[in-house]
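Replying to the earlier thread about multi-chain prediction with a worked example.

Input:
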Amino acid sequence: MSSASFSQKCVLSGSWKSSVGCKMVVSELSEAGVFSGSYLSAAMAPKADRLPSRLHGIQHGASLTEQPTFGFTVKWQFSESPPDSMSVFVGQCFVDDQGEETLQTMWLLRQEVGSPGADWEATRVGTNVFTRFKGQNMGESMRSDGAR
Amino acid sequence: MSSASFSQKCVLSGSWKSSVGCKMVVSELSEAGVFSGSYLSAAMAPKADRLPSRLHGIQHGASLTEQPTFGFTVKWQFSESPPDSMSVFVGQCFVDDQGEETLQTMWLLRQEVGSPGADWEATRVGTNVFTRFKGQNMGESMRSDGAR
Amino acid sequence: MSSASFSQKCVLSGSWKSSVGCKMVVSELSEAGVFSGSYLSAAMAPKADRLPSRLHGIQHGASLTEQPTFGFTVKWQFSESPPDSMSVFVGQCFVDDQGEETLQTMWLLRQEVGSPGADWEATRVGTNVFTRFKGQNMGESMRSDGAR
Amino acid sequence: MSSASFSQKCVLSGSWKSSVGCKMVVSELSEAGVFSGSYLSAAMAPKADRLPSRLHGIQHGASLTEQPTFGFTVKWQFSESPPDSMSVFVGQCFVDDQGEETLQTMWLLRQEVGSPGADWEATRVGTNVFTRFKGQNMGESMRSDGAR
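Result:
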């Protein structure tokens, strides 16, 4: 899977880590740019409760542009169940002179609320920056869910 | 497809319209809540240039909660090609006393920019509210892409 | 203060209410467009704990453009003290054919967090729409703080 | 003005620079935490067109909390006049073990649009991080506007 980082830049397939301790593994892309994968957030859950969460998204024509945009959804999954929540990320892949890829993203995090009257407070916003993960065992530790 | 609105509330499958003229058709959900579909924005493109754009997303366990959260990505597709752009939506389905379903969403719209230095201005944010589309021919007019 | 609604459109001075039960009173604008005022949120606090909160902002040259943009900060103030929080609103005033003014706004709400590691979850985002308040006693009920 | 960085941490008064080339000078705070100042954005305008823009905001009780939240509005001012635009920033000041202050902010940037139908695309969102500016002449170069 890490061969993606040698062959073609800015195809999302492979393993990524973020500056705030998030990790994700992205599958091969379909012809239309659709991908799935799994996401692990250090920040969102206590250690014992960290399960890989499923992600699903689309990348713009990676064969046509060098710095493509993409978007994906993460369906959060915790062993103890808080109110359901969902994140969406949208971003672009940039490649620097050394060939290093960076995913600049912004995200929205939505928590389930009880009624439309509480809708106003349901959505958080933020940024996250990802770089290629070059260790070996991320796929291993996140396989349980990513393979489903 | 509109049978969804009679049987089970707040499963995203079916046809939806928004207050600002957007329309979308969502496929049957997989067991894991994954769906695809197509999206048509009246606002984003001149009339001649409106093509249905592919969407892809996940809904939280619709069988377990009555007002589930969801997220999806839209890969914009125009006949004339502006810089690539992507939207992500995150939201929750609410059902009122009459059984009417409303999708309250917030979105991010990302445009492709030339370099990391222009990243700061790449992302727009907004809200959109969807209700069931009860006309008959939305699936028809949007089938060309949704079927891919 | 309500004379503003007869004389000149889209000067923020006066009383406004939002669709979700928020109310605000805005002072006369300075020559540079600076204003202050007070804000009351039905949603953010239990009834007993609702105090008017101070707001402070700037409007773009209301004498030069018919539908000016504006921005303001609200410093939340509750009788019982939760973590400090701040909101910022940015928007534009639109006038319809009947002369009705509408303030279309988006906001960010920031809560105080204990450390930079919790910064990612500190900010909420949403929209709010205001129209002129035509009742008589808003200024009265909100004067206690606005006058400071 | 730079004496603020020696005496009391996380009072916004003084000079700040951001990672993307923005600079701001903030006045003394009033007792209620109100401040004004000027802001210079490297990113938003071509070099010839950079004028300091007025800012206005509020900080939460800096005397009571060590890492206070704040919010402010920037009224953009360019020598050539594009559509009016406004930014609002909301954030929190963090102090690390070495006493270095960092302002973590999120912002919304609103551009004037012609009608409510274009409102959906008017607002951008992003982040910005500021640290104390330790050079000497920022106040000088930005005084023209800040003094008004």
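Chain A touches chain C through twelve residues (CB under 8 Å).

Feel free to reuse this layout for your own posts.
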